Amino acid sequence: MLPVTARNAKEQLRVTLRDVARLAGVHPGTASRALNEQTRSLVNAETAQRVLAAADELGYHPNPIARGLKTNRSYTVGVLIPDIENPLFPPIIRGIEDRLDQAGYTPVIANTENDAERERIDFRAMRARQVDGFITATARLDHELLDEVAGVGVPLVLVNRRVEDESLPSATADDRAGVRMAVDLLADLGHEHIAFLGGPTELSTGLQRKEGFIAGMQDRGLKPDPALVATGERFTLDEGQRLCHEAIESGRQFTAIVAGNDLMALGCYDALAEHGLACPGDVSVVGYNDMPFSDHFNPPMTTIRIPHYEIGRSAADLLLRLLEQGPDGSTQLVLEPTLVVRGSTAALDKK
Amino acid sequence: MLPVTARNAKEQLRVTLRDVARLAGVHPGTASRALNEQTRSLVNAETAQRVLAAADELGYHPNPIARGLKTNRSYTVGVLIPDIENPLFPPIIRGIEDRLDQAGYTPVIANTENDAERERIDFRAMRARQVDGFITATARLDHELLDEVAGVGVPLVLVNRRVEDESLPSATADDRAGVRMAVDLLADLGHEHIAFLGGPTELSTGLQRKEGFIAGMQDRGLKPDPALVATGERFTLDEGQRLCHEAIESGRQFTAIVAGNDLMALGCYDALAEHGLACPGDVSVVGYNDMPFSDHFNPPMTTIRIPHYEIGRSAADLLLRLLEQGPDGSTQLVLEPTLVVRGSTAALDKK
DNA sequence: ACGTTTGCCGCAAACGTTTGCACAAGCGCG
DNA sequence: CGCGCTTGTGCAAACGTTTGCGGCAAACGT
Question: Could you check: is the Cβ of residue B273 within 7 Å of any atom of nucleic acid strand C?
Answer without folding.
Answer: no
